[in-house]
C-alpha cells in the first residue's frame, strides 16, 4: 500500500474534485478487500469523467469517498478546494447538501413528492436562497410539463431527468452519478447521459459518472477504468 | 414539516388505518373512563358527599369491607372528639337492607344511621329532614327505583315500617344501593335484632340496649390536621381518610382495579400499535431515508420530521376518537348503566394516549439514525 501522491501538482487547483492517494479497505480479517488502492483522480469544473470497470472494482467506493459518505483510510479528498478530511460528520452532511449533487440509479426520488417538490425539498434542506428556481431547472431538463407528477406517474427516463435536476438545484461544484442508465432502454440512456454532459459543461460542474454502459461513453470528456481498486487508463 | 405532511397525504390509506385503530382506542378510553366514573359514583357518592374528613373503624377491622364489619361504641367517639384538630366526631351506623313499599315495589337501601342534629345530617334537596324515629331521607336517585315522599318502606324479615320524608340533594349511593338516612337510635333498634314489627316509637327505640355503631365519622377543624396515629391509639380505632374509606365500601377496589387494568392495557396497546406502525413505515422507507441522508439531510431533521408525523396522526385520531366516544357516552348517560363523563379523567386519557403513542413512535423512529447513507449507492461499494 502506497500513500504517495501521484498527481503532479495538486495544490494549485481549487475547483472540481481532487482525490490524492486514497486507500480504503472494506471488511475485516480474512475478508478484507482493498476497495481503493492508492487512487488519484482529478476532475476539473465543467469536465465529465466516466468510471468504468467490472463489478466490485471499487467504483461505488470511489463515489462514496468523493461524496463525503466514506472517509478513506489514507489520502486526501478535496472538493471545490475543501479538504473533506477536516470536516466533522455534521459538516460533511451540510457540505454534501450544498456542494455535491448525487444522481442515483433509477432516480431514487422520494415517492411522496411531485417533481417540483423533489427539488424544493433539497432547497429547504440546504436552507439557502441561492439555489435554482425548481421550475426553471425542470424546464432545463425538459420536465416542466411533469412538475406536478409524482415518481410513480413518471417513466424511468423521466425519473432520471428529475433526479438530475434535483442533484443540480443547490448549484453543486461536484456531481456524482451512479449507474444512471441501469434501468433505462438504449434511447433513453443516450438522452439522459447527453443531458448530464450538457449540464456539466453549461454549469461548470465537475462530474464523475460510474457506469457499466459502454454505449454512453462518447458523451464523456474522459474515461478511466477501475480494476481491483486501482485506476488504470 | 414539508416532507412529513406530504408523506401523510401520500400514504393516507396506511396512516388512516393506524389512525383508525388509535381513534377506536380513544373511544374505548372515553367509554371506560365514563364507566369507571359512573361506577365510582354509584359505589361511593354517598360517602363523597359527606362532610366528614375521615372515618375511624374499630381496631383490627379488615379494611376491604370495614363499613359493614366494624363495631364502635360511644366511648370511642367521645375519645376522638377530644383529639386535637377534631372539630366533631359522630357515630354512624351502616347496614344494607331490603324493603318493600306499600304498592309492593322492592327497594334495596343502604341504611345510614346518624344523629339528626350532628354534622352528618344530609343536605335536603326535597321534602324535609328526619325528625321522628320512623322517618328516613333517601337518595334522590331512589325516586327512579319507585320511592316517593310519603311512601312507607317495610324492611324485610323484621317488618319495621319507615316513612320517606325527603330526598337528599344530588346522588347519594353506597355500594350501588341508594342511601336511606335514619336516626341512629332507629338504626340501633333495627341492627340489634330486638325490633318489633310496625312503626318504631321513640319509647321502643330508646328501650333497646344496643349502643354501638359502625364507625366514627370525624370532622377536622378548619385548616387543622388530625394526628390519626395518636387518635387511633387513644380510641382503639383504625382511621381512613374520606378518600381511603372508598376502599372500605363494598366492591369498590375490585371494580376500580379491573377498569384500571383494562386502561393500562389500552395504553400499552396504543404505544405498541403506533410503535409497530412506525417500525414498518421506517423500514419501508429505508432506501428513501438512505437517499435523503446521502444527499445531506441531517439525522435531526429526519427524526423531527418522523416525530411530527406521529404527533399529527396521534393528535388528530385521538381527538376524533374522544369526540366520538363523548357522543356515544352522552347517549349512555341517561340509561341504567352507571356512566358519568368527567372532564379530568378524559383529559388524562387523551394526554396519555398521545404521549404513550409518541413514545412508541419515537422508539421506532430512532431507527432512522441507523440507516446507512451508503445504501443509496448501488449496493456494492
UniProtKB/TrEMBL annotation, chain A:
Q: Which InterPro entries has this protein been placed in?
A: AAA+_ATPase, ABC_transporter-like_ATP-bd, ABC_transporter-like_CS, ABC_transpr_LolD-like, MacB-like_ATP-bd, P-loop_NTPase
Keyword annotations for this protein, in alphabetical order, are: ATP-binding, Nucleotide-binding, Transport
Gene3D superfamilies for this protein: P-loop containing nucleotide triphosphate hydrolases
* GO CC annotation: plasma membrane
Q: Which residues form the ABC transporter domain?
A: 19-232
- Top-level taxon in the UniProt lineage: Bacteria
The GO molecular function terms of this record are: ATP binding; ATP hydrolysis activity; transmembrane transporter activity
What's the protein called, per UniProt?
Answer: ATP-binding cassette domain-containing protein
Asked if Secreted is a keyword of the record, the answer is no
Q: Does the keyword ATP-binding apply?
A: yes
Automatic annotation (TrEMBL), chain B:
Tell me which InterPro entries the record gives.
ABC-4/HrtB_transporter, ABC3_permease_C
Q: Where does it live in the cell?
A: Cell membrane
Segments forming domain ABC3 transporter permease C-terminal = 264-373
| Name by which UniProt lists this protein | FtsX-like permease family protein
Q: What is the lineage of its organism?
A: Bacteria, Bacillati, Actinomycetota, Actinomycetes, Micrococcales
* Topology term for the membrane: Multi-pass membrane protein
- PANTHER family xref list: ABC TRANSPORTER, MEMBRANE PROTEIN, HEMIN TRANSPORT SYSTEM PERMEASE PROTEIN HRTB-RELATED
GO CC terms in record: plasma membrane
The UniProt entry, under Pfam families, shows: FtsX (PF02687)
- Which residue spans traverse the membrane? 264-283, 311-332, 344-366
Q: What are the protein's UniProt keywords? A: Cell membrane, Membrane, Transmembrane, Transmembrane helix, Transport
Amino acid at each position: 500500500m502506497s500513500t504517495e501522491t501521484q498527481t503532479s501538482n495538486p495544490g494549485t487547483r481549487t475547483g472540481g474534485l481532487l482525490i490524492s492517494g486514497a486507500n480504503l479497505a472494506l471488511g475485516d480479517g480474512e475478508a478484507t478487500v482493498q476497495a481503493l488502492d492508492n487512487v488519484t483522480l482529478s476532475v476539473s469544473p465543467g469536465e465529465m469523467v466516466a468510471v468504468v470497470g467490472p463489478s466490485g472494482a471499487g467504483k461505488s467506493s470511489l463515489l462514496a469517498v468523493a461524496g463525503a459518505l466514506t472517509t478513506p483510510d489514507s489520502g486526501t479528498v478535496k472538493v471545490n478546494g475543501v479538504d473533506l478530511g477536516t470536516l466533522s460528520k455534521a459538516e460533511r452532511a451540510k457540505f454534501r447538501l450544498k456542494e455535491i449533487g448525487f444522481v442515483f440509479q433509477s432516480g431514487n426520488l422520494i415517492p411522496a413528492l411531485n417533481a417540483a417538490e423533489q427539488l424544493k425539498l433539497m432547497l429547504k434542506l440546504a436552507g439557502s436562497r441561492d439555489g435554482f428556481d425548481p421550475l426553471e431547472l425542470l424546464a432545463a431538463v425538459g420536465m416542466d410539463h411533469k412538475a406536478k407528477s409524482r415518481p410513480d406517474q413518471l417513466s424511468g427516463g423521466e425519473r432520471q431527468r428529475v433526479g438530475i435536476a434535483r442533484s443540480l438545484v443547490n448549484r453543486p461544484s461536484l456531481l456524482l452519478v451512479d449507474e444512471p442508465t441501469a434501468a433505462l432502454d438504449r434511447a433513453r440512456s443516450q438522452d439522459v447521459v447527453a443531458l448530464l454532459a450538457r449540464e456539466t459543461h453549461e454549469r461548470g460542474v465537475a462530474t464523475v459518472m460510474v457506469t457499466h454502459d459502454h454505449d454512453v461513453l462518447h458523451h464523456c470528456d474522459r474515461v478511466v477504468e477501475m480494476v481491483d481498486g486501482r485506476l488504470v487508463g | 414539516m414539508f416532507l412529513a405532511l406530504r408523506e401523510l397525504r401520500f400514504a393516507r390509506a396506511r396512516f388512516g388505518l393506524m389512525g383508525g385503530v388509535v381513534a377506536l382506542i380513544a373511544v374505548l378510553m372515553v367509554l371506560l373512563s365514563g364507566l369507571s366514573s359512573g361506577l365510582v359514583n354509584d359505589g361511593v357518592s354517598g360517602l363523597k358527599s359527606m362532610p366528614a374528613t375521615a372515618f375511624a373503624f374499630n381496631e383490627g377491622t379488615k379494611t376491604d369491607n370495614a363499613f359493614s364489619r366494624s363495631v364502635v361504641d360511644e366511648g370511642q367517639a367521645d375519645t376522638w372528639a377530644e383529639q386535637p384538630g377534631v372539630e366533631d366526631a359522630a357515630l354512624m351506623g351502616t347496614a344494607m337492607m331490603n324493603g318493600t313499599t306499600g304498592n309492593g315495589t322492592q327497594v334495596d337501601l343502604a341504611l345510614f344511621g346518624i344523629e339528626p342534629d350532628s354534622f352528618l345530617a344530609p343536605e335536603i334537596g326535597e321534602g324535609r329532614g328526619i325528625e321522628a324515629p320512623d322517618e328516613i331521607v333517601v337518595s334522590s336517585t331512589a325516586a327512579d327505583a319507585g320511592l316517593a315522599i310519603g311512601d312507607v318502606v317495610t324492611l324485610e324479615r323484621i317488618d319495621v315500617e319507615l316513612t320517606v320524608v325527603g330526598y337528599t340533594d344530588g346522588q347519594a349511593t353506597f355500594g350501588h344501593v341508594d342511601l336511606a338516612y335514619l336516626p341512629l337510635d332507629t338504626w340501633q333498634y333495627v341492627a340489634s335484632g330486638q325490633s318489633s314489627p310496625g312503626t318504631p316509637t321513640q319509647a321502643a327505640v330508646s328501650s333497646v340496649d344496643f349502643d354501638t355503631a359502625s364507625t366514627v365519622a370525624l370532622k377536622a377543624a378548619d385548616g387543622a390536621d388530625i394526628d390519626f396515629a395518636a387518635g387511633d391509639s387513644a380510641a382503639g380505632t383504625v382511621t381512613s381518610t374520606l378518600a381511603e374509606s372508598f376502599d372500605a365500601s363494598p366492591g369498590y377496589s375490585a371494580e376500580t382495579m379491573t377498569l384500571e387494568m383494562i386502561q393500562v392495557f389500552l395504553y400499552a396497546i396504543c404505544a405498541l400499535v403506533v410503535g409497530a406502525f412506525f417500525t414498518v413505515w421506517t423500514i419501508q422507507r429505508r432506501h428513501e431515508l438512505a437517499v435523503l441522508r446521502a444527499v445531506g439531510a441531517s439525522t435531526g431533521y429526519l427524526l423531527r420530521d418522523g416525530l411530527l408525523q406521529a404527533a399529527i396522526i396521534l393528535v388528530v385520531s385521538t381527538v376524533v376518537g374522544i369526540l366520538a366516544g363523548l357522543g356515544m357516552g352522552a347517549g349512555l348517560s341517561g340509561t341504567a348503566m352507571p356512566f358519568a363523563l368527567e372532564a379530568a379523567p378524559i383529559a388524562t386519557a387523551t394526554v396519555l394516549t398521545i404521549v404513550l403513542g409518541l413514545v412508541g413512535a419515537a422508539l421506532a423512529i430512532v431507527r432512522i439514525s441507523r440507516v446507512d447513507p451508503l445504501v443509496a449507492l448501488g449496493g456494492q461499494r
